[in-house]
Amino acid sequence: MPIAINTEKPKTQHYELPTAFFELVLGRNMKYSSCYFSNDSSSLEDAEEAMLALYCQRAKVEDGQSVLDVGCGWGSLSLYIARKYSNCKITGLCNSKTQKAFIDEKCRKRGIQNVEIIVGDISTFEHEGTYDRVLSIEMFEHMKNYGELLKKIGRWMKEDSLLFVHYFCHKTFAYHFEDVNDDDWITRHFFSGGTMPSANLLLYFQEDVTIVDHWLLNGKHYANTSEEWLKRMDKEIVAIKEIMEMTYGKEEAVKWMVYWRTFFIAVAELFGYSNGEEWMVSHFLFKKK
To answer: d(Cα 162, Cα 193) in Å, to the nearest integer?
Structure first.
């Protein structure tokens, strides 16, 4: 298969919805991926920071390095590294002009000058630069051909650089998100062309990179994350209704509000299932082969 399929559809499903919606629902860091709840009293902001810190620890990020953030979203990791490691030079790759505009504005307001954001489709994007660290957070779930993807990323790695990957997964099975039945609404509206990887899937693709370390995080961290997003959506439902009406029109707005609420509930139930031991989060650390 190609590196990715249907790349335009998921972009419109998630990332071209007005940023104002995500600012109301996500935490302060705008982290649209699993957070890490170190204890029961953790706020969403605490959990965002804890996971971002864990990435940097596991990826062995050090001040002064060049860092590539592949699939950088609204810049939660890029901006975190810029804040914590002021001598790092960070390049973020995203597939959305609205996300680039958001991050660029954050950098301007905060006086951050060591972050550059590039808009591109990872499946066709070519780049000459090489980096000390490459990190990718919840982008691999939108991909298909991991061999070709890791070969491409490997070209952006220096001889001694490391690649860190975070994806959500099933403990045993990898499967496609497919729209074949009436009840495949998550595929249809949120993950067209997506993949549910298995916990060890990337270990089968070591032609261009070699595994250094591998960790599993209990799915309850993601369940708690999605519960927090749902709480914030419900708290801001009046403002969100206005955003949905502006985006989809009055007739479609209620339907899309229900879709998003149900999506957050479904994520919370999926990753909370079997005490978080069925669907979970997998972290990988690779070196260049």
So the answer is: 28
Strand (E) or helix (H) holding 163: strand 157-170
Strand 209-217's sheet: what is its strand order? 115-119, 89-94, 66-70, 131-137, 157-170, 279-288, 209-217
10-residue stretch averages of pLDDT, the chain, 289 residues long: 76 68 97 95 96 98 98 97 98 93 97 97 91 97 96 97 98 92 79 91 98 98 98 98 94 93 96 98 97
In this structure, the number of other CB atoms found within 10 A of the CB of residue 15 comes to: 18
Can you spell out the DSSP letters for 184-224?
-HHHHHT-TT-EE-BTTGGGG--SSEEEEEEEEE-THHHHH
pTM: 0.95
Residue in the structure block whose two tokens are 């709480």:
231
SS3 16: coil
Please, which residues bridge with residue 70 across strands? 93, 136
| Contacts of residue 203, Cβ cutoff 8 Å, sequence gap at least 6 | 211, 214
